[in-house]
């Protein structure tokens, strides 16, 4: 009985089995529907992707126009120009409407203080020397650590920034291509690393470290001292120096070409200080510090150039040792040349000479390589570079804690260099910002830090290695007590077939002096003219005269062969701007957090994370993503208040008077019908238009920096639509 019942149960379908069969069929049908929906969504996604690719660069930057817009209006306020912050493509400086004029407060304070200093220094150099020495002693003893800390923090921060997701953010609008080709950009960075420093410090600084190594390092005159001398020189002129330039240049380029602000140091701090303070006291204070630092840093370079020229003239003419009076005369003659270039419209010719200068400087280095100990230098260059990399952390760690001798060395060399680079960063930063528009932050930072540094390593290795080789070989004229300006000319004197070279070197140095003064004066003119890229000529001449006056005072504080006066004032005046550099890091990082590209990435991460969790929870492995509206607070923003002023205030367009005005990001049209052609210019601006147009046709740009002169070929594709004020930019093209 039991067996029969069992067999009957085995062969007769039961209600439970029928239910299981129907359930399995329903599941198969459900899976088929899901797969069909997934295929349909995949096909739609491919179609949308193809359409997006075709329309890339022509996005509709306005808020959604579909049926969900009404719902959004109920839950969200209005964004500026009806544009969500993650959809803003960026704003370029030449798209903004602003009036430029002399900032009387900045000009009066910075100009008044520096003119008073020059008068004081010329009338009573002894009292200035006493005060400068006291301030220098205090600064090197009490804040030397600050300069070391600033140099380390800047380099580390920029490397972190370069390799972070923020590194993808462009220094320009979305989709904007680089203004210059990679080759041209590299060439300009190369040119920025060539100049006075190569001819003055290149031969003398490594020789000094070889004869008198830094305390607690190597014995003088040894093989270890040779490589240590090259590493110490590379440390001062390498990655840390160019990181300071990259920080200021990158922050300025971002503010001008991504956020549409003026080319001012204070523009960097708008997110940190607020617009009111940036345009008020805090911003003016930053610009004043930048002017003072640039004045003294550039004056030090001009003083060094004058010392080198004076030594050359003394050797060539046989006039005997240089005196302060002779150096003052040289500075006055070269200042006259600067004034002529600034007011007579011959800047285009100066630009050509500057380009020739770069070629001549490279040629001089090449002559030293091939006429000097070529094989020795080819072996030294890679060894010196690896020694630099291996000992970098050791050199970064030296401070007062190593003893009084190390502190004295740091004050005379490392702290002085850090202060000098900090002083030069507004000037050099403005130049490299100008040539880097459209490049990503990552490319800008890595290129600016490593390309010029590497090229300087080669130049300094050749010049320094040759001077050390000649000293060890007992070459004529080399002694333990040589003054720095004499080393280069003594080196030349020991090379065959180049008896004519000292005359060329004097001309090269003279042009460096004139174009450096001209270029730096324009940058300071911009800082006192609310960012005007073509400041008035009298303002440029004023700053050039003040700069030359400071150079005279610096030299009067020492003697004709000493650098003490230059070093003291550079270090003292760089202290305030060292603090500004730290604030630049904070301000730039904070602003990058609200960048449209950074917000898009954050929205994308939030949206994908939420969708993946929800999809896996509901459908397991078989789900696809689709954009649908959500309840407020449940969307991709992840808690970001996109209507907050931190995200929206910056792209509210205004007219020339700062009043809000409508703007369409899709068409680029202003609500009041304004176009760039509507800008009016002053009579002086109009008079300079022809010269500017000719300069742009020449497509050349030259800037001297602390370690050299930068020259570039460039053209302005937007010149046909720019205002006369923008197109009348020969000086901007020349120097900034």
Structural account:
It is a single chain. The protein is an all-alpha fold and 736 residues long. It has 29 helices and 4 strands. The strands form 2 sheets. The chain has a two-stranded antiparallel ribbon. It is globular, with a radius of gyration of 32 Å.
Walk me through the topology.
Blueprint: H1 2-11, H2 15-54, H3 69-75, H4 104-123, H5 125-142, H6 144-163, H7 182-192, H8 196-211, H9 223-237, H10 239-257, H11 270-273, H12 275-278, H13 281-317, H14 324-343, H15 347-371, H16 374-396, H17 404-412, H18 414-435, H19 441-472, H20 484-493, H21 501-527, H22 537-557, H23 564-592, H24 596-619, H25 645-648, E1 663-664, E2 669-670, H26 683-687, H27 689-698, E3 700-705, E4 708-713, H28 724-727, H29 730-735
Antiparallel strand pairs: 1-2, 3-4
Structure at a glance:
With 736 residues, the protein is mostly helical. 67% of the residues lie in helices and 2% in strands.
What's the end-to-end separation, in Å? 106 Å
Q: Compute the number of helices.
A: 29
Largest sheet, if any? 2 strands, antiparallel
- Helix and strand composition category: mainly alpha
Radius of gyration: 32 Å
| DSSP strand tally | 4
What is the strand content? under 5%
- The poorly predicted ranges are 1-13, 48-76, 680-736
Strand order within the widest beta sheet? 1-2
| Overall 3D form | globular
């Amino acid at each position: 009985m039991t067996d029969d019942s069992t067999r009957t149960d085995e062969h007769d379908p039961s209600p439970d089995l029928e239910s299981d069969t129907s359930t399995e069929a329903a599941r198969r049908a459900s899976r088929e529907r899901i797969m069909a929906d997934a295929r349909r969504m995949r096909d739609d996604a491919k179609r949308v992707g193809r359409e997006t690719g075709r329309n890339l660069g022509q996005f509709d930057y306005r808020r959604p126009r579909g049926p969900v817009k009404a719902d959004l209006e109920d839950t969200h306020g209005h964004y500026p120009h009806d544009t969500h912050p993650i959809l803003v493509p960026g704003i370029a400086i030449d798209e903004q409407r602003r009036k430029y004029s002399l900032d009387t407060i900045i000009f009066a304070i910075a100009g008044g203080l520096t003119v008073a200093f020059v008068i004081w220094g010329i009338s009573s150099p002894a009292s200035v020397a006493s005060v400068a020495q006291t301030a220098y002693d205090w600064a090197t003893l009490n804040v030397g650590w600050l300069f070391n800390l600033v140099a380390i923090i800047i380099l580390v921060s920029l490397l972190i920034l370069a390799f972070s997701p923020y590194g993808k953010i462009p220094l320009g609008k979305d989709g904007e291509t680089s203004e210059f080709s990679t080759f041209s950009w590299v060439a300009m960075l190369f040119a920025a690393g060539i100049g006075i420093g190569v001819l003055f410090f290149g031969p003398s600084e490594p020789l000094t470290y070889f004869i008198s190594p830094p305390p607690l390092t190597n014995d003088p005159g040894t093989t270890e001292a040779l490589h240590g001398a090259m590493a110490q020189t590379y440390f001062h002129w390498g990655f840390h120096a160019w990181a300071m330039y990259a920080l200021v240049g990158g922050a300025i380029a971002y503010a001008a070409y991504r956020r549409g602000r003026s080319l001012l140091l204070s523009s960097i701090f708008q997110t940190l200080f607020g617009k009111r303070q940036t345009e008020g006291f805090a911003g003016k204070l930053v610009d004043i510090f930048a002017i003072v630092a640039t004045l003294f840093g550039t004056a030090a370079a001009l003083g060094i150039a004058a010392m080198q020229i004076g030594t050359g003239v003394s050797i060539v003419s046989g006039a005997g040792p240089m005196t302060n009076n002779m150096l003052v005369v040289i500075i006055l003659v070269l200042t006259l040349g600067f004034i002529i270039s600034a007011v007579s419209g011959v800047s285009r010719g100066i630009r050509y000479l500057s380009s020739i200068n770069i070629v001549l400087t490279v040629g001089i280095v090449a002559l030293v390589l091939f006429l000097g100990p070529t094989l020795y230098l080819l072996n030294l260059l890679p060894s010196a570079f690896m020694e630099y990399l291996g000992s970098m952390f050791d050199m970064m760690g030296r401070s007062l804690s190593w003893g009084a001798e190390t502190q004295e060395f740091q004050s005379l060399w490392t702290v002085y260099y850090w202060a000098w680079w900090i002083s030069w960063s507004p000037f050099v930063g403005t130049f490299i910002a100008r040539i880097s528009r459209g490049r990503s932050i990552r490319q800008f930072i890595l290129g600016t830090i490593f390309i010029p540094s590497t090229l300087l390593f080669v130049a300094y290795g050749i010049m320094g290695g040759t001077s050390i080789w000649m000293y060890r070989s007992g070459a004529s004229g080399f002694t333990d007590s040589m003054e720095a300006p004499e080393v280069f000319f003594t080196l030349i004197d020991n090379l065959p077939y180049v008896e004519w070279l000292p005359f060329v070197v004097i001309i090269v140095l003279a042009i460096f002096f004139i174009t450096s003064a001209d270029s730096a004066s324009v940058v300071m003119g911009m800082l006192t003219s609310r960012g005007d890229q073509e400041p008035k000529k009298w303002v440029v001449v004023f700053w050039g005269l003040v700069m030359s006056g400071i150079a005279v005072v610096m030299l009067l504080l020492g003697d004709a062969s000493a650098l003490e006066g230059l070093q003291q004032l550079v270090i003292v005046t760089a202290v305030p701007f060292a603090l500004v550099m730290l604030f630049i890091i904070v301000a730039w990082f904070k602003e990058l957090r609200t960048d449209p590209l950074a917000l898009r990435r954050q929205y994308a991460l939030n949206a994908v994370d939420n969708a993946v969790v929800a999809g896996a929870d509901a459908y397991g492995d078989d789900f696809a993503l689709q954009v649908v509206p959500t309840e407020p607070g449940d969307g991709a923003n992840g808690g970001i208040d996109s209507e907050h002023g931190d995200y929206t205030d910056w792209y509210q367009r205004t007219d020339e008077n700062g009043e809000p005005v409508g703007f369409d990001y899709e068409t680029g049209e202003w609500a009041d019908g304004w176009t760039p052609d509507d800008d009016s210019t002053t009579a002086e601006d109009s008079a300079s238009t022809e010269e500017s147009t000719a300069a742009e046709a020449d497509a050349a740009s030259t800037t001297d920096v602390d370690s050299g002169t930068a020259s570039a070929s460039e053209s302005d594709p937007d010149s046909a639509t720019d205002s006369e004020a923008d197109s009348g930019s020969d000086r901007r093209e020349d120097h900034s």
